[in-house]
Specification:
615 residues, alpha+beta, FAD/NAD(P)-binding domain, seven-stranded antiparallel β-sheet, five-stranded parallel β-sheet, 11 helices
């Protein structure tokens, strides 16, 4: 049988279908670029999908840092899932992510497709050669722009770009918590499991190949049927190797993040199959200890699911024009070319993972607030047309402990996809996007991304110059907040109009001072950016979440346009479930006033609007 080779030409090709790749591909397509996303797995989502089932954490640090949840495409996906998947099934979540990709205009998905080789000329990637397992096709993709969202930095590595594995020395970036000398240690991989209470005693027979762990082996790892937390009274628990406090949520029904291996291997990527097999022995060995090694409160529990795909924490990082480092993170640095942000604590896991019996499994370096990530971290310094999205961006090992988590990767992915479409439009390189930084930042803010320290000054937004009135407001939540340029609460500033919803609703109006032609209205509502809404295996994470849609989120509302006292456009929206709402007019209309009337929220008697934009 002859090999079937098919050539595919796009403007942007994203390699990697985790959340960073998904957000990059959707963003590029929405900005008008003909985009492909290539994923070597049968589903999108990466570590958040049903193969691995890790919950999506980010800058809010499980809600310990208020009002820092990621927005943009990520929250759009999570709110869609919240509406359709109330019990947070991971396989159903797979379908929600797949739908967002599959039915996005300008975006073609290629699942079960592995990148085998890269064609490079003079530092420019000309093509990538892939094989699709399900169709037995060889696919050759060409494009002016590529995005490496592989996690391992595989595209860049095949193309000859410089990358790093392990820790830099303390001296390289003057990082106070880096080791004295550089090393090749990495954080390891984890394979999750779930257990279910059957309501009656369940026996477990250890497979012959499973390891045996003693209580002394696991003395530094919480492993009875309880839930530990790294959040205490709303604050992060300080943690060091002598504290005896374990970070992260831990419960027997959701597996244990500390069943971790890989950091002590010579090649965490090249030895991935061996690591997976060893993790299987560890998972079943830990379960044997829980069931047969003393009373751990799991007599009625039955092993229900064990993942066969380990979740990677760390492998390669690709070198960009700048390395985000520990000092930037701790200082909450705001870069002039900031395009994303992070806030997760700097997480440093022990080299030997579960096999480091004499050590606590992780060291947490906490810091207040959040930091920005500059554009210069999101492209390879050695390649002319490759951007980076996800955990392979240009950071030091110390900063990577914070920037690696999926929420941070996702918002960075959206920034990269938006920039990729701009680069196609301008015919420029990723590095040259720096010359268009204000445009990129304003586009990201328009699309509901948050960049700390930056505000809306989009000249096309006609709402910015309007005068604002309302039917009423609560203290500190005046109507003018909807055009102040910031679409979330920051510190003590609500940046939100709030009013009690009366029998006729609660209304806010923008007066343009004359006839203004509009074709689109954008409304940004409040889904409570301090409360998590992602799927999770962990019981207390799920139980902290509201069961339906966020209480604060606007449910029913009306948008009206007036020319003088004459209504020229009206639209009622019922059962809204998204934060960012776009109202596209059938045709451009000249108006003097825009009025939004909130008729109901999902769980409170208040109308809450962060931002109104008019184009």
């Amino acid at each position: 049988m002859s090999k079937k080779t098919v050539s595919k030409e796009y403007e942007v090709v994203v390699v990697g279908g985790g959340l960073s790749g998904v957000c990059a591909a959707i963003a590029a397509a929405r900005e008008g670029a003909r985009t492909a996303i290539i994923q070597n797995r049968p589903m999108f989502g990466g570590c958040a999908g049903s193969e691995i089932r890790m919950h999506i954490v980010g800058a809010s640090s499980h809600g310990a840092k208020k009002n820092l949840a990621e927005t943009g495409i990520l929250i759009e996906i999570l709110l869609e899932n919240k509406r359709r998947n109330p019990y947070a099934s991971f396989p159903v979540f797979d379908s929600v992510i797949w739908e967002k990709v599959r039915f996005q205009e300008n975006l073609d998905p290629y699942l079960n497709t592995n990148m085998d080789d890269v064609v490079v000329e003079d530092g420019t990637v000309k093509a990538i050669i892939c094989h699709q397992n399900t169709t037995e096709k060889e696919l050759v993709f060409t494009a002016p722009l590529f995005v490496d969202a592989t996690g391992h930095g595989t595209l860049c590595t095949l193309a000859g770009a410089a990358g790093r594995i392990g820790s830099e020395s303390r001296a390289e970036f003057q990082e106070p918590n880096a080791p004295d000398e550089p090393n090749d240690d990495t954080m390891g991989n984890t394979m999750m499991f779930t257990a279910i209470d059957r309501g009656e005693p369940v026996k477990f027979r250890r497979p012959f190949w499973a390891y045996t762990f003693s209580e002394d082996d696991l003395k530094y790892r919480t492993h009875d049927n309880s839930m530990g937390s790294h959040v205490d009274g709303g604050k992060l628990v300080e943690f060091d190797e002598n504290s005896g406090r374990l970070p992260h949520f831990s419960s027997v029904d959701a597996g244990y993040w500390w069943i971790e291996l890989g950091g002590q291997y010579d090649d965490i990527i090249g030895e991935g199959e061996e690591i997976r097999d060893e993790l299987m022995k560890c998972v079943y060995g830990v379960w044997d200890h829980l069931k047969n090694g003393g009373d751990h409160g799991v007599e009625n529990y039955d092993l229900d699911w064990v993942g066969m795909v380990p979740g990677y924490r760390e492998s390669r990082r690709i070198e960009g024009d700048y390395f985000l480092n520990e000092n930037d993170v701790r200082a909450n640095r705001i870069f002039p070319d900031a395009v994303a942000y992070g806030g997760w604590q700097m997480d440093q896991h022990v080299r030997g993972g579960i096999m480091d019996f004499d050590k606590l499994p992780s060291r947490i370096l906490n810091f207040d607030g959040c930091y920005t990530i500059p554009w210069r971290c999101y492209y390879s310094k050695d390649l002319n047309n490759v951007m980076l999205a996800g955990r392979d961006i240009s950071t030091s090992k110390m900063a990577f402990g914070s920037s690696r988590v999926m929420g941070t990767c996702a918002v960075g992915g959206q920034a990269v996809g938006t920039a990729a479409a701009m680069a196609v439009r301008y015919g420029c390189t990723p590095r040259q996007i720096g010359e268009h930084m204000d445009e990129l930042q304003q586009r990201l803010l328009r699309d509901d991304c948050y960049i700390p320290g930056f505000v809306n000054h989009d000249e096309k937004d006609k709402a910015r110059l309007a005068s604002v009135t309302a039917s009423g407001c609560t203290a500190g939540n005046e109507p003018e907040k909807v055009i102040n340029g910031v679409s979330r609460t920051v510190g003590a500033e609500s940046n939100c109009w709030e009013a009690v919803i009366g029998p006729e609703g609660a209304s806010v109006s923008l007066d343009f001072g004359g006839v203004t032609e509009l074709s689109e209205i954008r409304l940004t509502f409040d889904p409570n950016l301090s409360r998590e809404i992602m799927p999770s295996l962990t019981r207390n994470v799920r139980e902290r979440q509201v069961k339906g849609m966020p209480d604060e989120l606007v449910k029913d509302y009306r948008v009206q346009l007036f020319n003088g006292e004459r209504e020229i456009f009206s639209r009622d929206v019922t059962d809204n479930y998204q934060r960012l709402n776009r109202i596209i007019l059938p045709e451009a209309a000249g108006c003097t006033r825009l009025t939004v009337t909130v008729l109901a929220a999902h769980g409170i008697d208040r109308a809450r609007i962060f931002e109104i934009r008019a184009y």
